[in-house]
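Q: For a teaching handout, I want to show students what a protein-ligand complex looks like in token form. Below are the inputs, and the small molecule is MU-OXO-diiron. Please produce the holo structure.
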Amino acid sequence: MVAVTPQPPAASARLTMQSIEIAAETTAIRSLDWDRDRFDIEFGLNNGTTYNSFLIRAEKIALVDTSHQKFRQLYLDLLTGLIDPTSIDYLIISHTEPDHSGLVKDVLQLAPQITIVGAKVAIQFLENMVHQPFNHLIVKSGDRLDLGQGHELEFVSAPNLHWPDTIFTFDYKTGVLFTCDAFGMHYCDDHTFDEDPEILSADYKYYYDCLMAPNARSVLAALKRIEKLDIKTIATGHGPLLLHYLPDWIDSYRVWSQEQTKADVLVVVFYAEDYGYSEQLARSIAHGIVKTEAAVELIDLNTTELQEVRELVNIAAGIVIGMPPQSNTDAHAILSTILAAAHSKQSIGLFESGGGEDEPIYPLRNQFQEIGLSEAFPPILVKEAPSQSIEQICDEAGIDLGHWVTRDRTVKQMKSIDSNLDRALGRLSNGLYVLTAQKGDISSAMIASWVMQASLDPMGVAISVAKDRAIEALLHPGDRFVLNVLEEGNSQALMKHFLKRFAPGSDRFSGVKTYAATNGSPILADALAYLECEVKSRLESSDHWIVYSSVQVGRIAKQDALTAVHHRKVGNHY
Ligand code: FEO
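A: Here is the structure, written as tokens, with MU-OXO-diiron included.
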């Protein structure tokens, strides 16, 4: 495996290209986006990302996926340096999201003879996207395409990983399985392969949680379909290619997905993938739900069956619906099925995606309330492209719904702890603090008591943050926050305020005196002291993130006052 055309880094843009032979007659063309810090709901990107495309040069020539528009010139220069585009026979589209298909139109201009290969929905989507006729070949699971020289390709349908259009492509000669989003991670560096899994595993899991966990059943179905293949390498669409630890990476997907599907509390999120911002909002809500003990299943109203809907609604503890367009009569039939199967023990949440002709939300809300379902969050109405703050609202709405449907289970778990252990653990005492954070137009706050100094040089603190806290999204490496220290005898008002239940997206600081720290986060004017911190790393425990941060600035308001202390009786909750 030899790098054939190393590219000089573009000094300011930090967009670079890499091309490397990964197997016989197979070249990876990787677009390295070093600084991307946000990717739809994965707003905690720390290590950039890559968009990977592949070229198989056998008797017939196939390109697998393209790249993001921002790489237009770099990608096309590299591609045309590798091959005369007019000699490419096929462009295989694994998935039509623009980070992979953003340059299809450009490739078609250079290579109008090309035949685009994809799932039926992918081809339909591309027809609407490129607005010009093109040769195409619709494929489904089990279909084969022979490129010659032993490169026989087999297609594997992998719907919902992470759109309904996804196909994998397996090359029988090289054992390379091209999977696009599945098995990917947002991790950018010059290493083409997965040499060091310790560095990569946190990003791999985070990516799974964000993109794949809401479709765990589909992940398991896809794993079943690829079981029979002798896979040597998984050529993903994002991050390093998986070669050295392949069985471990695959097994992680299996274990995580089995855990998801075994969870006894399920929330089903219905949305219309091709309508407004429905899919994006649905994913943000699902992202919040998976932070809790509940499992989630994302269902596209356009591709589901009534029987599946009935079965899922029957077993669901919670239902979320993104309103489909009024013109979508099939989706109407599904709404009726959901209403007919829903029952009073369930929780409901609704959102409108801004497509312009949504089915009205309030009549449906009334119908669910008449059946007796409890509303987990007020309807979310979004008319414009979702901003970070809208996604945060959706994330928090998902967390609220997840907490609601798992509340009985949480109480049961608390009661099940051995009482001696419970009381002994409760003797660990801590101070009382309010952690405040501002990132872009999102702010959040939480009471913290599991806080300790964790290093001397540089000064550092460790804070334990439950995985299902909304503020967790603002505490990734590089993020900044303020740790406000509460004062003994003067903490009640702040405690009462921050222990309130806040509606998704509501201003946590309304009615509280604050001023801005140099790092932009709010300092509570009534705190005894504050520390300005920057997150350096996170350690995952079963249900908490232990966030280690360096401390840059600190001030104290009263020299002689003491820190408020939290004395507990039991260790099974805060
Ligand atoms: Fe990497 Fe779903 O696009």
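A: Two things your students might notice: The two ends are 53 Å apart (CA to CA). Residues 68 and 143 are 28 Å apart (CA to CA).
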